[in-house]
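The records we work with from here on pair a chain with its fold. The integers have meaning only within a learned vocabulary of local backbone shapes. A complete example follows; check for yourself that the lines match position by position.

:::
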Amino acid sequence: MGKFRDLWDRKLDGDDVESRSFFRYWIISTAVFLILICFVNQNNIIRWVRAGLQIKQQNKQIESYKQDIDQLDRKIQGITADKDSLEQFARENFHFAAPGDDVYIDPDK
């Protein structure tokens, strides 16, 4: 840290006036460039990171939806495989009854 602080002291330039002033110019221009790239520009690094995180989150959500779709497809295939499972599904979810069935209504459901 001491050497970096000494770089800004012009009394210590001595014979290296040109190289030390170029190095100071290089540090300042690099710092300004990094500030512009990271914060000021509309296409900045912070926006890239946020977009990357959002893409990861959306990809996870897509995978979750794909798993849900696969599960529902298996359920549909199981229900439509035979008439008995379709009738059982209709009775359980839509309260259908076959002629001659006794219907009991549960008020808690």
Summary: The two ends are 73 Å apart (CA to CA).
